[in-house]
User: What shape does this take?
Amino acid sequence: MKFTAFTIFLATAVATVSAKSWNIAKDLDEGVRANLCALQIQTCQNNCGGPSKAPMAFCNETTIAWGCGCLLKTPDFETWNWPVPAADCKGSNDACVANCNTGEGDRSGCFIKCQDTHKCNTNFAPVSYTDTADIAIVPDYVGPAVSYKGERLDDLNDGNDRSNLDDSSSSKNQSDGDNNNSSSGKSSSGKSSDSSSSDATSTFKTTGLALIVVVAAAAAF
Ligand SMILES: *[C@@H]1O[C@H](CO)[C@@H](O)[C@H](O)[C@H]1NC(C)=O
Ligand SMILES: *[C@@H]1O[C@H](CO)[C@@H](O)[C@H](O)[C@H]1NC(C)=O
Ligand SMILES: *[C@@H]1O[C@H](CO)[C@@H](O)[C@H](O)[C@H]1NC(C)=O
Ligand SMILES: *[C@@H]1O[C@H](CO)[C@@H](O)[C@H](O)[C@H]1NC(C)=O
Assistant: This one.
């Protein structure tokens, strides 16, 4: 079984379950949102050194607005690895793959583009516009297609129109999710030496996860 044929089969399987226009609050069902939020809050509290040291650790189960602020330190979890941004990237990627499958033109080129623009759990992942200053603030969800590293990304192809947003001098700068007592700008701090290996790891993990989806889908039929 060759990779390309397998990828097309995979995309077909994913297409039947993916929304065309990705929105993390609308497209994840209630139970999944609750689990994701619990994980987000727990990850924040752990990073801060315990719940009592995390005065700002929230995640809204309806909107997925999240934030993390520690008492004694700046949260130092990489922004793209927080549970919510990671899930947002994965959902956008799945929508991208689904849209390749239903769209016209070169599908395998389209799938490769999804991989190139969705290097989830790395500095090259698209910024997730889900973090807010307060639990009641509704996130933007969609913003300019840039990576955490600050690079402009091609069309994310997740069904969201960014044509009026796709300007790096946009009024709203990328936020890093660490809203409290933190100074931003850590996204380009000295991590570049591992970035290629974490890309490879991420791609591998994504493929592995997709494989599980296919196996699950096959079992269902
Ligand atoms: C930091 O978090 C506390 C507790 O949630 C809040 O009262 C305060 O306004 C926050 N500060 C900033 C700058 O967001
Ligand atoms: C932030 O820093 C201030 C002063 O350093 C401190 O009083 C406060 O408890 C810290 N945490 C939050 C969440 O505001
Ligand atoms: C979640 O956000 C919505 C929309 O702003 C708000 O009405 C709701 O109260 C928030 N949930 C919590 C638990 O604060
Ligand atoms: C947004 O980023 C640009 C370029 O990095 C900077 O010049 C500008 O002051 C920032 N705006 C805000 C509101 O932080």
Summary: Residues 3-220 form one domain.
